[in-house]
Amino acid sequence: MSEQTFVVVGANSAGGTAAATLRTEGFDGRIVLVGAEPHLPYERPPLSKEYLRGEVPRDRAFLRPKGWWEENGVEVLLATTATRVDVEAKTVHLDTGDAVAFDKALIATGGRNRRLSVPGVELEGVHSLRTFEDADALREEARSGRHAVVIGSGFIGCEVSASLRQLGVEVDVVDPGKAPLLRVLGPEIAAVYDAIHRDHGVRFHFEERVAALRGSNGRVEAVQTQSGLELGCDFVVVGVGIRPVTDAVDGSGLDLTNGVAVDATLRTSNPDVYAAGDVANHDHPLFGRRMRVEHWDNALRMGVAAAQSMLGTGGAFEHPHWFWSDQYDTNLQYVGFATEWDELVIRGSLRDRRFVAFYVKDGLVRGVAGMDRGRDVRRAMGIVAAARPVDPVALRDEDVDLKQLAASLTAASS
Ligand SMILES: Cc1cc2nc3c(=O)[nH]c(=O)nc-3n(C[C@H](O)[C@H](O)[C@H](O)COP(=O)(O)OP(=O)(O)OC[C@H]3O[C@@H](n4cnc5c(N)ncnc54)[C@H](O)[C@@H]3O)c2cc1C
């Protein structure tokens, strides 16, 4: 039996998966999983979708059955915040006043919602969405016939808008950009989402910045924009992105540029401290750059990979990244990471809202998005991973099998 102690700070998708993996992959020392929330590790994606609409119970969202942690000898400290991780003294200090000495530690502290800095954000009826409690509070508000203003048209804003419409809530969306999901998906696909939401009755107000939230008796009643637009409402949902949570390692000497900087194997500059999930700013070997992504699948995969690195059995984390988004009856899947591209090659039809889009930069496919064609997106994962030039004609051609195309590129690169 190992005498070692591994501490995981942050008990959600990345941290929970890492702690579980340490055990299932043979670590027989002490594992301490520290989580600020009062819940065992759970999945957040349903919070803007089925859970928000009241279609699934809480129990369905947990990462492992309730008894799993105790049965597997993982000490889970819930409702407990790690106030400081002293990476030199190898000690995690807790808000309970206790301290846990570690041999290795994983930082999996995720993200925290950005706040709007405008007058009125503290009014009752102004919501954001990250936790079970946030989703429950929002669900209370989301009664048919009521009126919401959603601030932000990124994935959270769009998914919440869709769920609210499905619940019969009137929805206005305010965003400083020109279209929904524009930054990630580009103007062509953003236009498809714009049309989908408008078809479902969402009213968009683009190129509008929120100036203030107005209310009376302490409760929000309207959103006012800088151009003077005033949108009356019963409640507000703010979805303007997250910030990585690094409070516990502030001043630790670790590189905290955009989260916790880690190398390809998810190790920080301290050889015994690792990071994974939304908080990790990863040096990705495939894309040749640092990136911090905020996706569920990445949190799980990094959780596994970080545990393996801690055990000395891991290697570089090279997964090309995959995520999905459900809005109304439309499923989007995306693989890769494209921040800029020279060409968008479409297989299928944007007009029919059934397509696969390839984001091509310097001849390489850096990202693939598919609407209601998830299988094709998954088949195209190898095309991104191969990082080899591809003929756009083959990408467009429905008769070219994407998996075979990926295999031929992989063969060419080896
Ligand atoms: C509403 C919603 C819908 C989403 N939908 C999708 C989707 O459809 N597809 C997709 O790919 N992704 C989706 N995501 C994103 C996905 O949920 C995140 O990428 C994932 O939760 C990241 O997991 P994580 O463990 O890295 O971080 P987090 O989930 O943020 O968990 C970090 C945990 O650490 C805790 N913590 C922080 N600091 C401390 C400390 N000092 N001490 C102790 N504990 C601490 C936090 O309380 C938190 O519980 C969604 C997210 C939200 C909020």
What would a concise description of this structure say?
The chain is an alpha/beta fold and 414 residues long. It has helices at 13-24, 68-71, 132-141, 155-166, 182-199, 296-311, 374-379, 381-386, 392-396, 402-413, and strands at residues 5-9, 30-34, 74-77, 82-86, 91-94, 99-101, 104-107, 111-113, 126-127, 147-151, 170-175, 203-206, 210-216, 219-225, 230-232, 235-238, 242-244, 260-262, 273-275, 280-284, 289-291, 322-327, 330-336, 343-349, 354-361, 364-371.
Task: Walk me through the structure.
This protein is an alpha/beta fold and 414 residues long. It has 3 domains: 5-44 and 61-111 and 244-311, 3-Layer(bba) Sandwich (FAD/NAD(P)-binding domain); 126-240, FAD/NAD(P)-binding domain (3-Layer(bba) Sandwich); 329-413, 2-Layer Sandwich (Enolase-like, domain 1), CATH 3.30.390. It is 24% helix and 30% strand. The protein has 10 helices and 26 strands. Strand 13 (210-216) and strand 14 (219-225) form a beta hairpin. Helix 1 packs parallel to helix 6. The longest helix has 18 residues, at 182-199. The chain is globular and about 60 Å long. The mean pLDDT is 97. Flavin-adenine dinucleotide (FAD) binds next to helix 1, helix 6 and strand 22.
